[in-house]
Design a protein that fits this description.
Layout: E1 2-7, H1 21-44, E2 49-52, H2 64-75, E3 81-84, H3 95-104, E4 109-111, E5 118-121, E6 124-128, E7 153-159, E8 161-162, H4 168-171, E9 178-179, H5 183-186, E10 191-195, E11 201-204, E12 207-209, E13 225-231, E14 239-244, E15 249-257, H6 263-270, E16 280-291, H7 292-305, E17 311-315, E18 319-322, H8 325-331, H9 336-349, H10 353-369
Parallel strand pairs: 1-2, 2-3, 3-4, 6-7, 7-10, 8-9, 10-12, 15-16, 16-17, 16-18
Antiparallel strand pairs: 1-13, 5-6, 11-12, 13-14
Helix pairs in contact: 1-2, 6-7, 7-10, 8-10, 9-10
Length: 370
């Protein structure tokens, strides 16, 4: 019997360049801390090994500090054996990574750099398919079909896309080599663990994408984590348990509004719990229809709540704006400002989103100065 944790796509050293520096620091630290989170999950599940199915590192040339700190962290959990396999970000062509790790890795870290059977434990063999380049352009798992592992449990490890997924962008992976989705059947594998897709996906009961242990997008994936896998014997179905490890929440909140509803009230009821906001990145979107007063109240509610979050952004451009004569009178009764408001209102009624946004800003400004 063997019990192991299947994980992938740690992307240690990921720069997160689209965010302010203080946010980038938190996100990078969460990535580094994911090693400890995986170790905790492995220990809780009585696993002996942590199998990392590629993209442990985000870049082909990570800093020495990124490499050293990863090895130090894994060394601190010396009751576990960590197995690292190259993915498309840290492929075999990124020789500096693997040469450095070959010299400096601790005794409980194993590198799966060759497509050959590797003994994991008594009666269990690992069949790795390390990525040779950023885009190998071929199915690197084909060799598994003819691999001789005797009577041992056969565990495959791969990184890339299988051909029955809908699209790379939609599912959150990066494409590359096309891997036969029935490889586990062809190669008589007891379990096939994939990396590359950042969301956890069950392909078949014995073929899984683990997803990343820390989220890195607003895509609607399963909660970030890893898979605890237990296989009793050769030919037995694996027992797969999903475990959560993520620290930072990435939340896309979409409010679909009716004109009769109170946008600010809906926002307040939909926001995450206050205690979680300092570790949450939130992207707020609104659709539907709202009056000028409701739109202004929603924008103010978002502005008031934003400082609670690690990072907050909003986009109300898809929210159609309605108005009444009294709304325009609040802006001004007459004169050039009222003329501008009337022109913007007419354009907004015709579907001009830019005019609608300008009208709401004008309305909000008018409320501030009154």
């Amino acid at each position: 019997m063997i019990r192991f944790l299947h994980a992938s796509d740690l992307h240690l050293g990921k720069p997160f360049g689209a965010f302010p520096e203080e946010v980038r620091q938190r996100l990078r630290q969460a990535r580094q801390d994911s090693i400890g989170a995986l170790a905790k999950a492995a220990r809780a599940g009585a696993a002996s090994h942590v199998l990392l199915a590629g993209d442990t590192f985000d870049a082909e040339t990570p800093t020495r500090a990124t490499l050293r700190q990863a090895m130090n962290a894994m060394a601190g959990y010396d009751d576990l054996t960590w197995v690292l396999m190259p993915g498309n970000h840290d492929h075999l062509g990124a020789a500096e990574i693997w040469e450095t790790l070959a010299r400096e890795r601790p005794g409980n870290v194993t590198l799966a750099l060759d497509p050959v059977p590797m003994a994991l434990a008594a009666g269990a063999m690992l069949l790795p398919a390390p990525c040779t380049t950023r885009n190998p352009g071929r199915d690197l798992t084909e060799w598994m079909d003819a691999a001789d592992s005797g009577a041992a449990i056969r565990i495959g490890l791969a990184h890339g896309s299988i051909r029955d997924f809908r699209s790379v962008e939609e599912m959150g992976g990066e494409g590359g080599a096309v891997i036969a989705p029935d490889r586990a059947i062809r190669a008589e594998l007891d379990y096939l663990g994939f990396g590359d897709w950042h969301g956890r996906i069950e392909v078949t009961p014995n073929t899984w994408y683990s997803g990343t242990p820390e989220p890195d997008s607003f895509k609607p994936h399963r909660p970030a984590g890893a898979l605890l896998v237990s296989i009793a014997e050769r030919g037995a179905p694996p027992e797969v348990t999903e475990t959560q490890t993520g620290q930072i929440n990435w939340t896309r909140l979409t409010l679909d509004l009716l004109e009769s509803e109170d946008p600010a009230e809906l926002l307040a009821g939909a926001l995450p719990a206050l205690a979680t906001r300092d570790r949450t990145l939130i992207d707020i979107r609104a659709t539907g229809r709202a009056g000028l007063a409701g739109h202004a109240a929603l924008a103010q509610g978002i502005e008031d709540a934003a400082p609670d979050f690690l990072w907050a952004e909003s986009n109300l451009s898809a929210l159609a704006v309605t108005h009444e004569a009294g709304d325009l009178s609040l802006i001004d009764d007459r004169g050039a400002v009222r003329d501008a408001a009337d022109a913007l209102a007419a354009a907004a009624d015709a579907g001009d989103a830019t005019a609608a946004a300008a009208l709401t800003r004008l309305y909000s400004y008018a409320l501030e100065v009154k």
